[in-house]
Amino acid sequence: MNIRLLIVCALLGSASLFVRAEDGPIWTHRAAQGAVVLTANPLGSESRIAFYGARGFPEATILPYAQACGFSFGMQNGSANKLTTRLADWHAVSADGKHVALRLPEAWDMEWVKSGVSEAARIAFRWAQFQSENTFEPGDWIMGMATLEVPPSGTFRLVARYRDDKGNHEIALDKLSCAKD
């Protein structure tokens, strides 16, 4: 099992937030391109405030992140090829056709540095994020959180691009919406 996944589960405190023993991960959105699978669940603000508060973030500091349109993403490489992802290549397409970028974890981290958040809390934040760049060997998978720069209007499509030895590909998750809480 991927060491990062184990660390993320440990940071989350309980894998039961995502897994039922009888049927594995529970995802509200799932799409596949060949043997590559992308999954997503919208994340509410209260759960993110509690999660990061327990890791040393003052509520006022984590609030902008918690209120951003955020998701827990999972991605699995079931193919025979190594693949790479870059969150900078992913985007949402709103109902009115506007493209919305994902906010990279490094951009949030710069905010935490300016706000004086402890290094330990910032490490916990980084490890729980879907990383800006990933390399997946055959069989690898990862799970992590990510946010959009701005909330799209209405439901939207998320386009996730990746690359393997055969070129560039994309997976699209349709009918996503930000959590309402």
Mind explaining what this structure looks like?
There is one protein chain. Strands 3, 4, 5, 6, 7, 8, 9, 10, 11 and 12 form a ten-stranded antiparallel β-sheet that branches. Strands 1-2 form a two-stranded antiparallel sheet. It has one domain (3-176): Immunoglobulin-like (Sandwich). 27% of the residues lie in helices and 38% in strands. It is an alpha+beta fold and 181 residues long. Helix 4 runs antiparallel to helix 5. It is globular. The chain has helices at residues 3-12, 45-53, 59-67, 105-115, 119-128; strands spanning 19-20, 24-25, 29-33, 36-43, 70-77, 83-86, 91-94, 99-103, 133-136, 141-148, 156-164, 167-176. Strand 11 (156-164) and strand 12 form a beta hairpin. The chain has five helices and twelve strands.
Low-confidence stretches: 1-24
CATH class: Mainly Beta
What structural class results from the helix and strand content? Answer: alpha+beta
- Succession of helices and strands: HEEEEHHEEEEHHEEEE
CATH fold descriptor: Immunoglobulin-like
H/I helix tally: 5
Global Rg = 16 Å
Which descriptor suits the 3D outline?
globular
Number of strands: 12
End-to-end CA span: 33 Å
Helix residue percentage: 25-40%
Q: How many domains comprise the coordinates?
A: 1
What percentage of amino acids are in beta strands?
A: 35-45%
